[in-house]
Amino acid sequence: MSQESSDYASNYAIARIDLPDQCSHGWQVRLQRRGIKYGKFFSDNLYGGGEASHSGARQWRDQLIHELESKMHNQARICTRSTRNSSGVVGVSRVSVVAASGVIYQFWQATWSPSLGKRCCVKFSIKRYGDSEAFQLAVQARTEATN
Predict the structure, then answer these.
(1) Which end of the chain, N or C, is less packed with Cβ atoms under 10 Å?
(2) Please, what sign has the CA dihedral across residues 131, 134, 138, 140?
(3) Does the model's pTM come out above 0.70?
(4) Domain segments of the chain: what residues?
C-alpha cells in the first residue's frame, strides 16, 4: 500500500478543522450509513494537542464503524419500491443512453448489491429483445442474483 493510500485509509471520514477566528482547532469525524449521519468534533484544546485529538478521532471512528458493520451484518436490507420506480420491480429500470453520434440506446437494467460496497448490473437491449422480453430478462437476472 502506498503512503498516500495509507494516509487516506487512516483518515477516512476524518477532516482537519481550523477556524482561527473562532478559536476552533481539531478533527471532525463524519459518517453516513443508511441515511443516518454520525459526527463528532475532537478539539485540540480538550485532547491536549493535534496528535492526541487526531488519535481520539480515529479511535472513535473505528469503534463507530465496527458497531455499525456488526449491526448491519445482522440486519437484512429492506428494499421497497420507490415512488420514482415506474417498472414496478425493485432494482429493475428502463434506461436510455444518447451516444455521441446522437443514436439513442434503450435497455432494461437490473441492479443489485452482492455484498457491502459492491454493485452489479446487467442490461438487456430493447432493440435486440423487444421491450417485454428485455424487461422479463432483467427481472429474471435480478431475481436469480438476489436469491
Answers:
(1) C
(2) positive
(3) no
(4) 3-73, 92-146
